[in-house]
Design goal:
This protein is an alpha/beta fold. The chain has eleven helices and five strands, in the order αααβαβαββαβααααα. It has a five-stranded parallel sheet, covered by helices on one side.
């Protein structure tokens, strides 16, 4: 699959998710599904996906949500998974072939600018795929074009880092070894860019959506079957992974050592 060209307003995100980050997430696809699968299912249930529907999976990544949606809509439905990350879509396509699901199509495109067929989808869904738009109002307005009258949009996104223990615990340990980063500008694209419910309501309202409901989800995050895998994931993923993007191997090893020593409290 040809990698998406990094151009336009969202070029920094396209470059990021087609570089080391995209390769890492593709490699860790099974672990990621274990970590956040239950959260995605909750958003899928809220989306009320049912047999025969046409569904858009925004930021579908490695495709596990797309496959689950295809099972829910059955042979009479169809699913389009769209993502800017070529490495993850390669995993998604391999999973589709293995599952033998021909009601799925994947597009290596930017949902913020993709020329969607108007009024083509009954449901718009995303599992942690909508917090990375440079201009989220324009992006959601573009995706709304694809929604039929009466369609429903549902997505799950992260609260603030300090409200997510799996993020805050390794981040705090990492700060023993690296300087604290400058606070990000308000609304900067990233995992917790939608942490403020009022901001999310404003974005959705300004892009043409109505009847907006935001509900908290509290579930355990499963990091892996053993300590070593959990430590590896905590160093590589989320805000800690971004913090350590340019850290030396020695620094990462020291942080991993501290994590290993303290993670037993969550076992």
């Amino acid at each position: 699959m040809t990698r998406l060209t990094a151009e336009g307003a969202n070029a920094p995100q396209i470059e990021y998710w087609n570089g080391a980050a995209g390769d890492r997430w593709a490699r860790l696809a099974d672990t990621q599904d274990l970590m956040i699968g239950e959260l995605g299912m909750a958003a899928m249930d809220a989306c009320a996906i049912d047999a025969g529907q046409s569904v858009l999976d925004i930021g579908c990544g490695s495709g596990s949500t797309t496959l689950e949606i295809a099972r829910r809509v059955g042979p009479g439905g169809r699913v389009l998974g769209i993502d800017i990350s070529t490495p993850m879509l390669e995993v998604a396509e391999a999973r589709r072939r293995d599952a033998g699901l021909d009601t799925i199509a994947f597009e290596n495109r930017d949902a913020a600018t993709y020329a969607f067929e108007p009024a083509a989808f009954d449901r718009l869904f995303s599992r942690f795929g909508v917090m990375f738009f440079i201009d989220p109002v324009a992006a959601f307005a573009n995706m709304r074009i694809a929604a039929r009258m009466g369609a429903r949009l549902a997505f799950v996104c992260w609260k603030a880092r300090t409200q997510n223990q799996w993020m805050d615990f390794p981040f705090s340990i990492a700060l023993r070894h690296v300087p604290a980063p400058a606070p990000p500008p308000p609304g900067e694209p990233g995992p917790t860019a939608f942490a403020d419910p009022d901001r999310v309501r404003g974005i959705l309202g300004d892009s043409g959506f109505g009847d907006i409901a935001i509900d908290p989800i509290e579930v355990p995050i499963i990091l892996g079957p053993d300590t070593e895998i959990a430590v590896e994931r905590l160093v590589e993923l989320g805000p800690t992974g971004r913090l350590l993007r340019d850290a030396s191997d020695d620094t990462k090893a020291a942080i991993a050592g501290d994590l290993r020593a303290e993670i037993s409290q969550f076992q």
